[in-house]
Each structure stands twice: as C-alpha cells, then as structure tokens.
Amino acid sequence: MQQQLREHLERIVSLTDEEFALVLAQFTSRQVRKGQFLIRKGERVRELYFVVQGLLKLVHTDAAGKAHIVSLAMEDWWEGDFAAYLAQAPATLSLQCLEDTAVWCLPLAGYEYLCQQLPQMARFFLVKFARGGIAAQQRIVSLLALPARERYERLLRQYPTLPQRVSKTLLAAYLGVSRETLSRLADQERPPK
C-alpha cells in the first residue's frame, strides 16, 4: 500500500525517501468492509481518503430521503466530504464502501502539516483539488446538457470496468436515468448475435 501511495504522489511531485517518510507518518491505513461507512451525514468529518483498493459511493440524501450519488470513487481517487473536512464540520454527505476497500486516511492536521512542511505536497493537493473540481464541473454539465446515450458512452470510455463493479440500479442513478433506460442503452451497445 505504501508503494501505491508513493507512486500516486510522484506522478505529480518528487519526494526523497525522507520526505516520503514524513508524508507517510501523517496517514493511517484502514481496511473497510463492503457496506460500511467512512462518513455518515451529520457526523464530524475527520479524514480525507485515498483509495488503494475498492469502490466507494459519495451520496447526498435530500430532505425527502432520496439519495443522490455525487460520485463513485475507485482506486487512485481521493474522496470525502471536502467542505466538511476543511471546516471540521458535520458531514452533509455520506461515504459508503461498495466493495471491501483499503484506504489511506489523512486527518486535517496532517494535511495542514504536509502543506506547511513540504511545498511540493501543497502543490500536489492544489493539483488534485483543481482536477477534482474540473471533473465535478464536467459531471454537472453532462447531467444538465447531454442526452442519456452520451452520458453512458462517456462513462464507458472513462471507466470501462465500472459497469461490472456496480449494479445497474446504482449505475442508472449515477447517470441520472431510470434502470429501464440504462438497460436499453446497454442493450444497444452489444453487437448483434
């Protein structure tokens, strides 16, 4: 797990062995079972998560009790309720494991320490947060402006293994379509027999 974290960081910044040891000291690792929550709505958010293995769903539950999937996070992704994490406030989102999952956990004090002590880590987080913001904007535009077929095709191009990892019901909710619509889209993708 340490090597995967180091490789992930070093795609953006360079770290000496001593610097990586300092980075690693700020994290804890955790194994979480399918169905368990890393964050529950209303609880204080203490950590940000780097996914080593597994799959997570970040969900907003509205006042009527309807769950809206904000994201699906897989290997090499950072996930959490970022606003609640940075403010050390109660979560407005829930983060649940869809598979048995291994994560690195970074408390806010560790994040702040790394940004102060290692300028390259401040740069790393700036790049990751910017990329995450861009991806979130693209997802919003996709949901607002693209037809279901284009959203589905984009998902298949970006995350080709995702349909094998989640149920059609969950995938449909993520795409903002009914399960029946997703089935039609998936059937149209298959070559004729």
TrEMBL record:
InterPro entries, from UniProt?
Answer: cNMP-bd_dom (IPR000595), cNMP-bd_dom_sf (IPR018490), Env_Response_Regulators (IPR050397), RmlC-like_jellyroll (IPR014710)
Cyclic nucleotide-binding domain: which residues? Answer: 11-132
> Gene3D superfamilies annotated for this entry?
Jelly Rolls
CDD domains linked to this entry:
CAP_ED
Q: What are the GO cellular component annotations? A: cytosol
Show the Pfam families listed in the entry: cNMP_binding
Could you give a GO molecular-function term held by this entry? DNA-binding transcription factor activity
The protein here is known as Crp/Fnr family transcriptional regulator
Instruction: Tell me which species this is from.
Output: Hymenobacter setariae
